[in-house]
Design brief:
There is one protein chain. With 192 residues, the protein is mostly helical. Helices cover 51% and strands 6% of the residues. β1 and β2 form a beta hairpin.
Length: 192
């Protein structure tokens, strides 16, 4: 896995582009907005977000609990801390508290009962509204942006590995290869 495609184009959104994406998401329909926020703030895969159910939104703990879908076996979960604003939006739009009071605690209530293609289209509509294009303007670009932002913020690689659900630390280590403004921020710390 690399952060650049064969043509040398960046496959992740910069901090400024991610912020532009989130601002554009504020204007999107409510369900699309919460999906975009979830992808940007958790670093999850699109398929993992679409599989999220109300019982896996831990409002008290401040985390989203994702079934890690690439481990090739069921029952592997990871908790990812997310901002309170995302949890509030999920509760407002998807009725998390209400669903969790019902029998089954909302385990049958998928937040986005959409196909993968419908989710992909919703994210791309927001990318277009934000004026973003190219390889980085995708759900995967948001995942990579999360990894780069986490490493650039000084989050230990093993924690980023856990949050992203990587089996190997070497996969997570690519985010230490950040460039542009992110690399400048890292270098500034060294310069004093």
């Amino acid at each position: 896995m690399q952060l650049f495609d064969r043509d040398g184009s960046r496959k992740y959104l910069t901090v400024a582009e991610r912020a532009r994406f989130l601002r554009a998401a504020e204007q999107a329909p409510r369900e699309a907005r919460t999906l975009c926020m979830t992808l940007a703030w958790s670093g999850c895969r699109l398929s993992e977000a679409l599989a999220l159910t109300a019982d896996r939104v831990d409002l008290a703990g401040g985390v989203l609990v994702f079934a890690t879908l690439k481990k090739r076996q069921d029952g592997i979960y990871r908790a990812v801390p997310v901002p309170p604003s995302l949890l509030e939006a999920l509760d407002l739009v998807h009725g998390i508290r209400e669903a969790q009071r019902r029998r089954g605690r909302g385990s049958a209530a998928r937040l986005w009962p959409w196909s993968r293609m419908t989710g992909w289209r919703a994210v791309h509509a927001v990318m277009d509204a934000a004026g973003l294009s190219g390889p980085a303007a995708s759900p995967k670009g948001l995942r990579h942006a999360f990894g780069v932002a986490a490493v650039s913020s000084g989050i230990p690689l093993n924690m980023v590995q856990k949050w992203l659900g990587h089996a190997q630390l070497s996969t997570t280590a690519i985010y230490a290869d950040a460039v542009g403004a992110e690399e400048q921020d890292i270098a500034r710390k060294m310069w004093g």
